[in-house]
Amino acid sequence: MAELSTLARPYAKAAFNAAVEAGELSAWSSALATLGAIIGSDEVHQFIGNPSVTASEKATTLAQLAGDDCNEGAKSLLDVLAENNRFPLLTEISAQFDLLKAEHEKSADVVVKSAFSLSDAQQKTLSDKLAKKLDREVSLTIEIDTALIGGVIIKAGDLVIDDSVRGKLSKLADAMNS
């Protein structure tokens, strides 16, 4: 069977194109995130796996559970997913939609793991340099991980910059063992 990301891609692209056309990127993002969270519930997972419930009933129920977050476009997407028995893809569709949205908006969510807390000035400098390097508006999330010993690990999508003491020691050990 194909990977979830491969199956979810056309749905995410279609949802993204509809959102751009309607000028509702944030509303779609919110709807997909809500639906992705709902689909992760054990009760909902059992419900959508129930063969005695029609596809239409499943789509309607999911839309009702999402409440006001579920716009008309998202309801149409639910109908298509129901017809093709693809509800388990909702979490991946949401993730891929958010990647397309970030690319469109020229923004990036960056996670910085540091051995110590960073001052506001350090965060500002790091944010400015990453914005320049990535050519995007950067939203930093700082996580403290004392196991790093010192330095930072920066993750922005596929890009990972490991400038931690632990990472350097690991590279040194690998070099000595080879």
How does CATH name the architecture of the largest domain?
Orthogonal Bundle
Number of helices: 8
Tertiary shape = elongated
Identify the strand order in the major beta sheet: 2-1-3-4
Largest sheet: 4 strands, mixed
Strand/helix succession = HHHHHHEHEEEH
CATH topology of the largest domain: Peroxidase, domain 1
The CATH homologous superfamily of the largest domain is named N-terminal domain of the delta subunit of the F1F0-ATP synthase
Termini separation comes to 38 Å
Can you identify the CATH class of the largest domain?
A: Mainly Alpha
Number of domains: 2
Percent of residues in beta strands:
15-25%
Fraction of helical residues: 55-70%
The unreliable regions are none
Topology:
Layout: H1 4-22, H2 25-39, H3 42-48, H4 55-66, H5 72-83, H6 90-105, E1 107-114, H7 120-134, E2 137-144, E3 151-156, E4 159-164, H8 165-177
Helix pairs in contact: 1-2, 1-6, 2-4, 2-6, 4-5
Protein name: ATP synthase subunit delta
Membrane topology: Peripheral membrane protein
InterPro entries: ATPase_OSCP/d_CS, ATPase_OSCP/dsu
